[in-house]
From TrEMBL:
The keyword DNA repair does not apply. Belongs to the TrpF family. This is N-(5'-phosphoribosyl)anthranilate isomerase. NCBIfam families: PRK01222.1-1. Its EC number is 5.3.1.24. It is an enzyme of class 5 (isomerase).
Length: 221
């Protein structure tokens, strides 16, 4: 078994090339103007063409209206729509039906009660992504480089699959893989030298550390 690796917030050709060459399974393009990783649709379209057929393309939005999603679909044609805001289960179902794409719903976690909400998305979202819950003062709901207490995941219904994000990097991803039953990991800040500036060496180190940890975890005994 292998773990899914998603590198999120790519906005340059160099960073995209590094993620693809390192073997990322999913790449994320952020459509949120307040983010240092925001990309204009035209740039995103060019970057997506590099990735198509090599990694799954994920378009990340926050409480998007249909007009934004239409633009994303027309220019980028992603494999996945990631909803990283406060979208309800009904809105997730609507987006999925309207755009005919797999939907990844991100949920912020800071206490066991946050998993009660997760149940409401089971069977509606195609995948759940658990991220650290942002502080109230945050100007964006993700990509903050903050971890959450992974032991909280032990309280989650074992039938619920999820990807893990929030403050991962090459130094802590092995422990995250060992400690949790995540089916994949998602990173943004942890492969950057400054907010929004991806570093090719850090991307390579993150992917390598994840693969080594996954091999150790899933190797036949
Ligand atoms: O990356 C952003 O700037 C961002 C903005 C608004 C909503 C979500 C955002 N990122 C979400 C991601 O998928 C990140 O990979 C995830 O939150 C982990 O980020 P990090 O803790 O920086 O690795």
């Amino acid at each position: 078994m292998s773990l899914i690796i998603k590198i999120c917030g790519l906005k340059t050709d160099g960073a995209m090339d590094a993620a693809l060459e390192a073997g990322a399974d999913m790449i994320g393009l952020v459509f949120f103007p307040k983010s240092p990783r925001h990309v204009a649709p035209e740039t995103a379209a060019r970057l997506a063409e590099k990735a198509r057929g090599r990694a799954e393309i994920v378009a990340l939005t926050v409480n998007p209206d249909d007009a934004l999603l239409d633009t994303v679909m027309e220019t980028v044609a992603p494999d996945w729509l990631q909803l990283h805001g406060t979208e309800s289960p009904e809105r997730v179902a609507e987006v999925r039906a309207r755009h005919g794409r797999s939907v990844m719903k991100a949920l912020g976690v800071s206490s066991p009660e946050d998993f009660e909400r997760a149940g409401a998305y089971a069977g509606i979202a195609d995948r759940l992504l658990f991220d650290a819950k942002p502080p109230k003062s945050a100007t964006r709901p993700g990509g903050l480089g903050e971890t959450f207490d992974w032991s909280l995941l032990d309280t989650l219904d074992p039938a619920v699959d999820f990807m893990l994000s929030g403050g991962l990097d090459a130094a802590n991803v092995a422990e995250a893989v060992r400690r949790t039953r995540a089916i994949g990991v998602d990173v943004s800040s942890g492969v950057e030298r400054a907010p929004g500036e991806k570093d090719a060496d850090m991307i390579r180190a993150f992917v390598a550390a994840t693969r080594v940890a996954a091999d150790a975890k899933f190797a036949p005994q």
